[in-house]
Amino acid sequence: MSKRLAAPRRIVFVATDLAEELDLFGSVSAFRAANRSPALNSPAYSIEIVSGTRTAAIAGNCGITLLSNGSCFDLRGAIDTLIVVSGEHAHQPHSKELLAWLAEHGPKARRLVSICTGAFVLAQAGLLDGRRVTTHWSRAAMLAERFPAADVSANELWVRDGPVYTSAGVTAGIDLTLALIEDDIGAAAALEVARGLVVFLRRPGGQAQFSVTLAAQQAQTPAIRTLQAWLPEHLAEDLNVQRLADRAAMSARHFARVFRRELGDTPAAYVQRLRLEQARWMLEDGSWSIERIAALCGFSDAQLMRRALKRTLGVSPGQYRSLHHASPA
User: Fold this and answer.
1) Which of 46, 200, 249, 318 could pair with 8 as two cysteines, CB 3.0-4.6 Å apart?
2) CATH of the domain at 106
3) Are strands 57-59 and 132-134 parallel, antiparallel or unpaired?
4) Roughly what angle, to the nearest 10 degrees, separates helices 187-197 and 21-35?
5) For residue range 70-93, what is the model confidence (pLDDT) as tens digits?
6) How far apart, in whole angstroms, are the C-alpha atoms of residue 51 and residue 44?
7) Quick one: angle between helices 187-197 and 172-185, nearest 10?
8) CA-CA distance, 49 to 68, in Å (whole number)?
9) 3-class secondary structure, 273
10) How many CA atoms lie within 13 A of 194 on its CB side?
């Protein structure tokens, strides 16, 4: 069931010039989709897009010029959620006027959010000091080096530290927005939005920016590539080398040799990493018992999964869930 808010919550997006359009539009689209939920009698959000300059125009990174609702400097009244969006040039110095405005108004908002490289803008305003944060993986080291007062996590989709939320790149901003929607008006509404946008509901903040299949190099042999796509949907099954070789139409010995040459791992180790990744996601989600997770991920019992998780991450399934299960705001 969706929660009903007494009044629409004011969401303000501040976009710098050369902002990444998808970072902005993905999150805006999710909030607007939430407003269309049939479970709500009235919109949950009042959404404004403003520039970080004195004009209403925002030059996008992909060449689109957006005529926004105005300038951030003309805003009046309380802001519930202030979201900062920038682009590939976010690490460059921003105007003192914008940074001063953010330093004044950011702490007054109930939630302060950055999407992708927007973290650099918040950091320049001094708003990430002492906070645990994230950004796009390719810029995380730079953020950590330039702003040592921030505790930068390089491999999480999004991070919450008190009222400050930061996300990784592009579609991770949608994951974070879905989490905000769920906190505001409930899981059912967030699920409806996710289905409308054809995205997952919802990848937890602690999930890695790269999945096993994205991090691994893609095989050159078509049969191995096809197998890579097939494996994540069949983790609960017996995935011994002979069965995988049969699917690839190879002998077991030749299959194992080709697999390791092209993916840099043995079939067994690759499957184990997929199973652990799926188990981590399910533990983070919090909807399944540890025994059920072990069965669905292809571990013969919960104790085997426990040993694998402990060996890989140094924690038990229960400890991992306690550390990473998303809790309401």
Assistant:
1) 46
2) 3.40.50.880
3) unpaired
4) 130
5) 999 999 999 999 999 999 999 999
6) 23
7) 150
8) 6
9) helix
10) 21
